[in-house]
Specification:
By secondary structure, the protein is an alpha/beta fold. The protein has 24 helices and 19 strands. Helices cover 38% and strands 15% of the residues. The protein has a 7-stranded mixed beta sheet, sandwiched between helices. Strands 12, 13, 14, 15, 17, 18 and 19 form a 7-stranded mixed beta sheet that branches. The protein has a 5-stranded parallel beta sheet with strand order 1-2-3-5-4, sandwiched between helices. Helix 22 links the parallel strand 17 and strand 18.
């Protein structure tokens, strides 16, 4: 009889024997492979923590003992054991979130999926439990070895060691990888522990010997194993890493050996002070395609064939990231001073081809965005031009360094923000919707938003040519759409994408929203309303042509896939007011709220950032100020556009 269907909550684990727990682990791995293959998601990290998560829920009492996952992409097993086994809608609207989410379960505590913050949460919660008389509760934080490259982790450890009067268990899930192999001095240190011949040989041989000798020998082995671990950890000089912080250390232990995990976690539970449990696991455990994947061991996958691991239904097309990756190599060939910086995301941000072509010209700083940006300022001071490639959501973490280290010092640093705007299935912490509003307040900054692949290539070259200020090139997740050529490029670099001799509405499309802007113009034209569509290319600062064109139109509509509060539209409105131009401005963007997981298309439709909705609202607004002379498109004036009208261009905007 299968065990997994009988698990409706963590306490169902209490009745299972260690052998049954091992059987359950096998069933969970099969469940993960079959289900994540259908939906996509974080597969490798979860395959690596099956036994660990089972042991945690067996020993501790969630949610009374809060569990905190850093970063949360390894929480699928936790979801399964806490009554959430419907993975059919994983990372889709109304389905399970890809990260912990409080609205799903009281077992989920921290929703943010940004690395290195878990120990700060654990520090605060454990202090609160101690101060409010709940000393019988434990806080359990799971932090990956990759997160140890982040400064917040060490700031938290410094404070945790200052107060031993609380029950806090820190589990270091050490698989030698973040997205890719963990880098830096900490990684080398842990690699020596993981690969120590004395530890592996003695641990494996002792285990085999005592198990073979029968029950009495296994009992003796369990009794001495804790002492052996202590001896071995000292032998490989690992415990010294934490001893100076006054935090008790257990390990390293096999993260796939359930009896060992149970015994060690029980010891940690009884210690009644902060303790670190060092667990060595294998990312992608039990799934050959993941283990054979040298890139990231199936850290995150789309829909795949569960038997082979091959990607299904990619649909073709070229990813924005790939366009950037190829063009940066071209830039590097032309500019030997250009180097690249990544925060533990060499492949996801497209820097791998550059690293292959120019070994030694890429610096991976680990999960440490603040350090990456400040270090880039130093590189610029030394005569280089750094290109810092970061997901837009993670740029939030380094705002102070952009402001005070790069911009204040007028450093020539180019930031390339992947996954900018609405990203979709990864949920609120991964949307890149804050970058335009956040970064445009930095003095002297220049922000480019390419609408297609050709513009991404040219804007990247323009960005690295700036040596006295920070530049930003942002683009969304997914594949690049068709090229959207301009019918004219104005002297300041603004592209005109569509024009009508009847100047009613000026539509400013930012980046990928330029296509939406053109579609809106087609719909307005069919209603006898004239529209001009422009793409500034450089969204910040506001180009003079935007001001001039705004003065010639009755209404300005700005469309961006960032938050509308403080976005590019707000900046344009302010510039117009300063110029004494009273043209009405409608700023369209994403609402200033945390947006749950759904597809990009669903989220944009919810926000009203689709052509039918925008055109409908513009028609209502224009008809409130005048009656068009003609409704038929052939009477609406001469029309010029960069591309053919869509098939439904003749439909009414409110159809």
């Amino acid at each position: 009889m299968a065990l997994l269907p009988t698990i409706t909550g963590p306490r169902d684990l209490d009745r299972l024997s260690p052998e049954q727990l091992t059987e359950l682990a096998s069933e969970i791995r099969t469940f993960l492979i079959e289900n994540v293959a259908r939906t996509g998601g974080h597969l490798g990290p979860n395959l690596g923590v099956v036994e660990l998560t089972i042991a945690m829920h067996r020993v501790f009492r969630s949610p009374d003992d809060p569990f905190i996952f850093d970063t949360g992409h390894q929480s699928y097993v936790h979801k399964i054991l806490t009554g959430r086994q419907d993975f059919s809608g994983l990372r889709s609207r109304d389905g399970l979130a890809g990260y912990p989410q409080r609205s799903e379960s009281p077992h989920d505590v921290v929703e943010s999926s940004h690395a290195s913050s878990s120990l700060s949460w654990a520090d605060g919660i454990s202090r609160a439990l101690s101060r409010t008389g709940r000393r019988d509760h434990h806080v359990v934080a799971v932090v990956g070895d990759g997160s140890l490259t982040g400064g917040m982790t060490w700031e938290a450890l410094n404070n945790i060691s200052d107060d031993n009067d609380r029950n806090l268990v820190i589990i270091v899930n050490d698989n030698g990888r973040s997205y890719a192999p963990t880098i830096g001095g900490m990684a080398r240190y842990l690699n020596r522990v993981r690969a120590a011949g004395a530890y592996r040989t003695l641990r494996t041989s002792s285990d085999s010997l005592f198990r073979a000798l029968g029950p009495w020998a296994r009992a003796v082995y369990r009794g001495v194993r804790g002492g052996t671990h202590g001896f071995l950890s000292r032998f490989v000089n690992n415990e010294s890493l934490y001893s100076n912080l006054d935090i008790k250390y257990f390990g390293p232990i096999d993260g796939h050996d359930i009896p060992t995990l149970l015994e060690t976690l029980e010891l940690a539970k009884r210690y009644q002070a902060p303790v670190i449990v060092h667990v060595i696991t294998e990312k992608g455990r039990g799934y050959a395609p993941a283990l054979e994947d040298e890139a990231d061991q199936f850290h995150a996958v789309g829909k795949i064939d569960p038997a082979t691991g091959e990607t299904l239904g990619s649909g073709g097309g070229t990813a924005w990231t790939s366009v950037f990756a190829d063009e940066l190599v071209t830039v590097g060939e032309q500019r030997p001073d250009v180097i690249a910086v990544t925060a533990a995301m060499l492949r996801p941000t497209g820097l791998k081809p550059f690293a292959d072509r120019f070994p030694g010209r890429v610096y991976d700083v680990g999960i440490a965005e603040q350090h990456a940006v400040a270090s880039a300022a130093g590189l610029a001071y030394g005569g280089l031009h750094p290109v810092v490639a970061i997901y837009a959501t993670f740029m939030n973490r380094a705002f102070d360094q952009v402001m005070m280290d790069v911009a204040l010092h007028r450093a020539g640093v180019t930031f390339v923000l992947d996954r900018a705007g609405v990203t979709g299935p990864d949920g609120p912490s991964h949307h890149g919707i804050w970058d335009l509003a956040m970064l445009q307040i930095v003095p002297g900054i220049r922000i480019a938003a390419p609408r297609d692949a050709a513009r991404l290539r040219e804007l990247l070259h323009e960005a690295v040519a700036v040596e006295d200020a920070p530049t930003v090139v942002r683009f969304p997740r997914g594949n690049v759409g068709d090229e959207l050529p301009a019918i004219e490029r104005l002297s300041d670099g603004t592209d005109v994408l569509a024009r009508n001799d009847q100047q009613d509405v000026l539509i400013v499309g930012i980046g990928p929203m330029a296509q939406v802007a053109v579609d809106v113009a087609h719909r307005l034209h069919s209603q006898g309303i004239g529209a001009t569509v422009i793409d500034p290319r450089w969204a910040v600062p506001v180009a003079p042509s935007v001001v001039q064109l705004a003065a010639q139109h009755r209404i300005v509509i700005t469309i961006e896939d960032g938050i509308r509060v403080g976005g590019v539209g707000t900046r344009i409105r302010q510039v117009l007011r300063e110029a004494g131009i009273d043209t009405a401005v409608d700023e369209l963007g994403v609402p200033d709220e945390f947006i749950s997981h759904a597809s990009r298309e669903q989220i944009l439709e919810d926000a009203g950032l689709v052509a039918p909705k925008i055109a409908h609202d513009v028609v209502a607004q224009v008809l409130g100020t005048r009656v068009p002379k003609a409704r038929a498109s052939e009477d609406a004036g001469e029309w010029t556009a960069a591309d053919a009208a869509p098939e439904d261009a003749g439909r009414r905007a409110d159809d």
